[in-house]
Protein backbone atom coordinates (compact mmCIF):
# COMPACT_ATOMS: atom_id res chain seq x y z
CA UNK A 1 0.00 0.00 0.00
CA UNK A 2 2.84 2.36 0.87
CA UNK A 3 4.53 1.63 -2.46
CA UNK A 4 1.35 2.44 -4.36
CA UNK A 5 0.87 5.77 -2.58
CA UNK A 6 4.55 6.63 -3.07
CA UNK A 7 4.37 5.81 -6.81
CA UNK A 8 1.21 7.90 -7.21
CA UNK A 9 2.74 10.87 -5.40
CA UNK A 10 5.88 10.59 -7.50
CA UNK A 11 3.83 10.36 -10.69
CA UNK A 12 1.72 13.40 -9.85
CA UNK A 13 4.79 15.44 -8.92
CA UNK A 14 6.41 14.63 -12.28
CA UNK A 15 3.25 15.58 -14.17
CA UNK A 16 2.98 18.81 -12.16
CA UNK A 17 6.58 19.74 -12.93
CA UNK A 18 5.95 19.43 -16.68
CA UNK A 19 2.92 21.70 -16.32
CA UNK A 20 5.10 24.54 -15.02
CA UNK A 21 7.09 25.18 -18.19
CA UNK A 22 6.55 28.60 -19.76
CA UNK A 23 6.32 29.21 -23.45
CA UNK A 24 8.85 31.57 -25.00
CA UNK A 25 6.49 32.50 -27.81
CA UNK A 26 5.60 36.14 -28.36
CA UNK A 27 1.96 37.21 -28.39
CA UNK A 28 0.63 39.96 -30.66
CA UNK A 29 -1.74 42.30 -28.81
CA UNK A 30 -4.10 44.56 -30.78
CA UNK A 31 -5.11 47.69 -28.85
CA UNK A 32 -4.85 51.20 -30.26
CA UNK A 33 -1.77 49.91 -32.07
CA UNK A 34 0.08 46.65 -32.22
CA UNK A 35 1.82 45.50 -29.05
CA UNK A 36 3.81 42.43 -28.15
CA UNK A 37 3.97 40.35 -24.96
CA UNK A 38 6.20 37.53 -23.81
CA UNK A 39 5.55 35.67 -20.55
CA UNK A 40 3.02 38.33 -19.52
CA UNK A 41 5.44 41.25 -19.97
CA UNK A 42 4.89 43.94 -22.60
CA UNK A 43 7.83 44.25 -24.97
CA UNK A 44 9.09 47.58 -26.24
CA UNK A 45 10.37 47.58 -29.86
CA UNK A 46 14.03 47.55 -28.77
CA UNK A 47 13.47 44.52 -26.49
CA UNK A 48 11.48 42.75 -29.19
CA UNK A 49 14.31 43.30 -31.65
CA UNK A 50 16.85 41.93 -29.17
CA UNK A 51 14.80 38.76 -28.59
CA UNK A 52 14.16 38.11 -32.28
CA UNK A 53 17.85 38.50 -33.24
CA UNK A 54 18.40 34.89 -32.08
CA UNK A 55 16.35 33.64 -35.07
CA UNK A 56 18.32 34.08 -38.31
CA UNK A 57 15.19 33.96 -40.50
CA UNK A 58 13.23 36.55 -38.50
CA UNK A 59 16.15 38.94 -37.89
CA UNK A 60 16.14 40.67 -41.34
CA UNK A 61 12.39 41.25 -41.10
CA UNK A 62 12.78 42.75 -37.63
CA UNK A 63 15.68 44.91 -38.84
CA UNK A 64 13.39 46.38 -41.50
CA UNK A 65 10.69 46.91 -38.87
CA UNK A 66 13.13 48.74 -36.59
CA UNK A 67 14.30 51.05 -39.39
CA UNK A 68 10.65 52.02 -39.96
CA UNK A 69 10.16 52.50 -36.21
CA UNK A 70 13.20 54.76 -35.85
CA UNK A 71 12.20 56.88 -38.86
CA UNK A 72 8.68 57.25 -37.49
CA UNK A 73 10.05 58.39 -34.12
CA UNK A 74 11.97 61.20 -35.83
CA UNK A 75 8.79 62.44 -37.52
CA UNK A 76 6.65 62.00 -34.39
CA UNK A 77 9.03 63.81 -32.05
CA UNK A 78 9.72 66.73 -34.38
CA UNK A 79 6.04 67.09 -35.33
CA UNK A 80 4.95 66.91 -31.70
CA UNK A 81 7.51 69.53 -30.74
CA UNK A 82 6.28 71.94 -33.44
CA UNK A 83 2.66 71.47 -32.43
CA UNK A 84 3.46 71.80 -28.73
CA UNK A 85 5.60 74.88 -29.29
CA UNK A 86 2.81 76.59 -31.22
CA UNK A 87 0.15 75.83 -28.61
CA UNK A 88 2.53 76.79 -25.81
CA UNK A 89 3.17 80.14 -27.47
CA UNK A 90 -0.56 80.70 -28.00
CA UNK A 91 -1.40 79.83 -24.39
CA UNK A 92 1.03 82.46 -23.02
CA UNK A 93 -0.66 85.23 -24.96
CA UNK A 94 1.97 85.76 -27.64
CA UNK A 95 1.14 85.61 -31.33
CA UNK A 96 1.39 81.96 -32.41
CA UNK A 97 2.84 80.87 -35.73
CA UNK A 98 0.15 78.44 -36.91
CA UNK A 99 2.23 77.52 -39.94
CA UNK A 100 4.57 75.67 -37.57
CA UNK A 101 1.61 73.76 -36.15
CA UNK A 102 0.51 72.79 -39.67
CA UNK A 103 4.03 71.58 -40.50
CA UNK A 104 4.08 69.62 -37.25
CA UNK A 105 0.73 68.03 -38.07
CA UNK A 106 2.07 67.10 -41.49
CA UNK A 107 5.13 65.46 -39.90
CA UNK A 108 2.94 63.47 -37.53
CA UNK A 109 0.77 62.35 -40.45
CA UNK A 110 3.91 61.27 -42.33
CA UNK A 111 4.77 59.00 -39.40
CA UNK A 112 1.53 56.99 -39.71
CA UNK A 113 2.59 54.90 -42.76
CA UNK A 114 5.95 54.23 -41.11
CA UNK A 115 4.28 52.96 -37.93
CA UNK A 116 2.01 50.78 -40.06
CA UNK A 117 5.03 49.36 -41.89
CA UNK A 118 6.73 48.70 -38.53
CA UNK A 119 3.68 46.84 -37.31
CA UNK A 120 3.45 44.74 -40.47
CA UNK A 121 7.12 43.74 -40.48
CA UNK A 122 7.24 43.15 -36.71
CA UNK A 123 4.18 40.86 -36.84
CA UNK A 124 5.78 38.93 -39.68
CA UNK A 125 9.06 38.62 -37.73
CA UNK A 126 7.17 37.43 -34.63
CA UNK A 127 5.31 34.83 -36.70
CA UNK A 128 8.60 33.52 -38.11
CA UNK A 129 10.15 33.53 -34.62
CA UNK A 130 7.20 31.65 -33.07
CA UNK A 131 7.20 29.12 -35.93
CA UNK A 132 10.90 28.49 -35.32
CA UNK A 133 10.23 27.84 -31.64
CA UNK A 134 7.90 24.96 -32.42
CA UNK A 135 10.55 23.14 -34.40
CA UNK A 136 13.40 23.75 -32.00
CA UNK A 137 11.54 22.91 -28.80
CA UNK A 138 12.30 19.82 -26.78
CA UNK A 139 10.20 16.72 -27.25
CA UNK A 140 7.62 16.56 -24.50
CA UNK A 141 7.22 13.09 -23.00
CA UNK A 142 3.77 11.57 -22.63
CA UNK A 143 3.35 10.31 -19.06
CA UNK A 144 0.45 8.03 -18.23
CA UNK A 145 -0.51 6.29 -15.01
CA UNK A 146 -2.61 3.19 -15.19
CA UNK A 147 -3.04 -0.49 -14.61
CA UNK A 148 -0.32 -2.71 -16.07
CA UNK A 149 0.29 -6.47 -16.01
CA UNK A 150 2.17 -6.11 -12.73
CA UNK A 151 -0.32 -3.78 -11.01
CA UNK A 152 -0.37 0.02 -11.08
CA UNK A 153 2.38 1.58 -13.17
CA UNK A 154 3.61 4.60 -15.03
CA UNK A 155 4.35 4.64 -18.76
CA UNK A 156 6.54 7.32 -20.37
CA UNK A 157 6.53 7.74 -24.17
CA UNK A 158 8.97 10.03 -25.98
Task: Write structural notes for this entry.
There is one protein chain. This protein is α+β, with helices and mostly antiparallel strands. It has one domain. The protein has 4 helices and 5 strands, in the order H-E-E-E-H-H-H-E-E. The longest helix has 39 residues, at 98-136. The chain starts with a helix and ends with a strand.
Number of helices: 4
Mean pLDDT value: 83
Strand content: 15-25%
DSSP E strands, number: 5
Taking all Cα atoms into account, the compactness measure Rg is: 27 Å
Residue windows where pLDDT falls under 50 for at least 5 positions: 16-22
Pattern of helices and strands = HEEEHHHEE
Q: Sheet bearing the most strands, described?
A: 3 strands, antiparallel
Strand adjacency order, main sheet? 1-2-3
- Number of spatially distinct domains: 1
- Termini, distance in Å? 29 Å
Structural class: alpha+beta
The geometry reads as elongated
Residue share in helices?
55-70%
Short description:
With 158 residues, the chain is an alpha+beta fold. It has one domain (2-157).
Outline the fold blueprint:
Layout: H1 2-18, E1 27-30, E2 34-38, E3 41-43, H2 45-52, H3 59-91, H4 98-136, E4 142-148, E5 151-157
Antiparallel strand pairs: 1-2, 2-3, 4-5
Helix pairs in contact: 2-3, 3-4
